[in-house]
Amino acid sequence: MSLALATPHTEAPAPTPSLAPREQEALRHIAAGCTYLQTARQMGLSKHTVDAYLRRIRAKLGINNTAELTRLAVSLGL
């Protein structure tokens, strides 16, 4: 009878839904401490569009607040 070594099962991290380039850019500004209005001005958008981008990110990833958004940006290297 032979023994086979089994490697312990490790869970792969859950895949992160891909973010559109403009969503990534908005996330980067917010994580850097910019307000929605400052982000909008730097991106050449309205603050409502920035809000829509960030709502979309929150919906995709199940994030509830800006602190979690910032943590995500750091983990993504933005």
Model description:
By secondary structure, the protein is mainly alpha-helical. The chain has helices at 21-31, 36-43, 47-61, 66-76. α1 (21-31) crosses α2 (36-43), α1 packs across α4 (66-76) and α2 packs across α3.
Annotate the secondary structure layout.
Layout: H1 21-31, H2 36-43, H3 47-61, H4 66-76
The coarse overall form would be globular
- Rg over C-alpha atoms, rounded to the nearest angstrom: 18 Å
Give the oligomeric state: single chain
Q: What share of the residues lie within helices? A: 55-70%
Q: Which runs of at least 5 residues are low in confidence (pLDDT < 50)? A: 11-15
Q: Could you tell me how far the N terminus lies from the C terminus, measured between alpha carbons in angstroms?
A: 53 Å
Q: Report the average pLDDT across residues.
A: 83
Report the strand count.
0
